[in-house]
Design goal:
Helix content is about 0%, strand content about 70%. The protein is mostly beta strands. The strands form 2 sheets. Strands 3, 4, 5, 6, 7 and 8 form a 6-stranded antiparallel β-sheet that branches. The protein has a two-stranded antiparallel ribbon with strand order 1-2.
Length: about 110
């Protein structure tokens, strides 16, 4: 897992190698809800998938896997510190989102 946000005030990295943990991840219909916690910050987002295109991806060195990718997903995102102070709070309708067979998500 890797996710990051950059603002004028700093760079916020959420990844397995820095000890960040997924607190919850739910998928209902075409909506993904996620909370990721790091020692100093919490990233929450809700992403709504919209129809995308099929792309080939590698599996065991061969391009045998299909992934679905959209560039018009919608997201609501908030980044807070552990005290609950808001660093980022926003929405967008132009978000890249990729699905693979790891997620059994029907759209």
């Amino acid at each position: 897992m890797i996710s990051f946000s950059k603002t004028k005030d700093g760079f916020y990295n959420f990844s397995t190698y820095n000890g960040s943990k997924i607190k919850y991840l739910t998928i209902v219909d075409n909506t993904l809800r996620v909370a990721i916690a790091h020692k100093n910050h919490i990233l929450n987002f809700t992403a709504k998938y919209s129809q995308g295109g099929i792309l080939k991806a590698p599996k065991n060195g061969l391009m045998k896997r299909n992934i679905e990718e959209s560039i018009t997903a919608e997201i609501e995102l908030s980044l807070t510190d552990r005290k609950g102070n808001t660093i980022i709070d926003g929405t967008s309708n132009w978000v890249g989102m990729e699905l693979s067979e790891a997620f059994d998500l029907e759209v």
